[in-house]
Amino acid sequence: MENLIKNPPVPNPTILQSEELYKYILETSVYPREAEPLKELRTATYNHPLGFMAASPDAGQLMAMMLKLLNAKRTIEVGVFTGYSLLLTALTIPQDGKITAIDVYRKAYDEIGFPIAKKVGVEHKIDFIESPAILVLDKLLQEPEKEGSFDFGFVDADKENYWNYHERLMKLVKVGGVIMYDNTLWGGSVALPEEAVHETKRAARQAAIKFNKSISADPRAEISLVSIGDGVTICKRVR
To answer: In this entry, which stretches build a coiled coil (predicted)?
Structure first.
């Protein structure tokens, strides 16, 4: 592995339980292709007190590939934190692409992510809205032209509202578009008995279980729950 300044340990929980194998994946496949601005942002996020909230770089690599396969131009993101996935999206979509980014707090992004986005010249692609996401999504849906106007969505926010976000994003993202939901395996705790899970993680675990069950039965979507990072559900809108 490269030195810790350039590639700090990934702080958030991951599904892959073999540390050696996970390091191999990062060193062989992820880090060599990770853009320098993303490395810089990941390092800065690692030093943040809430660094464990960051998206994992291997999940980010998958996200970048999805954006390219879709030729995505208009995207929407719920949950930003320091902006790793937001910067990744801004670097991936075309110069005239646009991202609607929503988070209830923008301080971490302003302090860490925005300066890097500005330095590499992609800040013009980002429309950051500081607000509870439900309010913003509902407001967007009041504008008929916004329905089906997004190519791609990414959600990494409060797990209790994942289904509420899903219902709205399934109207905002076009048929054939994709939504990715992060942390849907919640450190693997979804497969454990509740008593084996720390009390502080039980509410989010239950929310993840409920969401996984609901989305698996959604006839409007094709899905794949991928055991990468902390679990990522890829959802394609088919109707």
So the answer is: none
